């Protein structure tokens, strides 16, 4: 990787100075300021790699450059800001929606910090929480699943999709999981999908209709986007909900809203985690339920790949190939 330096000794961070392929990500010495009054300095034990990171790097979404990617991770608090009372040096914590996690150290707002229970290690936390929080708001708030509901979960072998299948089963719902290839069928079944469809080979909307006796499903949770949204609409029952929360295959184009009427007065929403954790209390309440499910063995994430910081380009290539099962981590 161009610009690579050793991560031993002084702290390092991944820096992006231009948009482009994964090779624009370089490793450089870190020069962090002191944490602000409501920030904590953490030593990063593991950082999650997400599709949003690759879309940010490619230029699909824009942020001021240069920047250090990564919005989630877990580690140990080394220093606290003057106004922080919620944690102390030495505490094990996880965080989400805070930039700069592709590094050995990061300053994180206390509003994005969650203390880790003794039952959860740092790698598990970094692999689980962002996706679990997303799956939680989708299944508990965007469309709250109830016993007997039928849902479609796209990317059922992926990070969010696998967890969403598990939460749907906790809620008592029937799950039609979709995957992009036969290699991912087992992972979707292991996550709890009652039925599995390879959406690149069959029309999952017809499968959804067959499962429901022609009625259609109550909700489709869709992070694939461009390749699936039209069939997702066709899979819904009258007044069903299509919850878009990602664009792994490309951005959904503008649509004529009359399509929603023709589909049965269905609802369409594009969601984001930040709208569901507006306050730290929101975050802590969702995290508490997730940690409880994890402790009970009802919610578990698969870690698909671990990469050191100097192999960050390989981590992005792996995720963009859409061949991985489970979570991709950077482990400083």
Describe this structure in words.
This protein is an alpha/beta fold. It folds into 2 domains: 12-116 and 302-330, Quinone Oxidoreductase, Chain A, domain 1; 131-274, NAD(P)-binding Rossmann-like Domain (Rossmann fold). The chain is built from 9 helices and 15 strands. The strands form 3 sheets. Strands 3, 4, 5, 6, 7, 14 and 15 form a 7-stranded mixed sheet that branches. A 6-stranded parallel sheet has the order 10-9-8-11-12-13, sandwiched between helices. It has a two-stranded antiparallel sheet with strand order 1-2. Helix 3 (159-170) links the parallel strand 8 (150-153) and strand 9 (174-179). The chain is globular and about 60 Å long.
What is the CATH superfamily of the largest domain? Answer: NAD(P)-binding Rossmann-like Domain
Q: What is the number of helices?
A: 9
Radius of gyration from the alpha-carbon trace, in angstroms: 20 Å
Helix and strand content put the structural class at alpha/beta
CATH-scheme architecture of the largest domain: 3-Layer(aba) Sandwich
Q: Can you identify the CATH class of the largest domain?
A: Alpha Beta
Total DSSP E strands: 15
Helix-strand pattern: EEEHEEEEHEHEHEHEHEHEHEHE
Strand content: 25-35%
Major pleated sheet: 7 strands, mixed
Q: Domains counted in the coordinates: how many?
A: 2
Low-pLDDT segments, ≥5 res: 1-9
Distance between the ends? 16 Å
Shape: globular
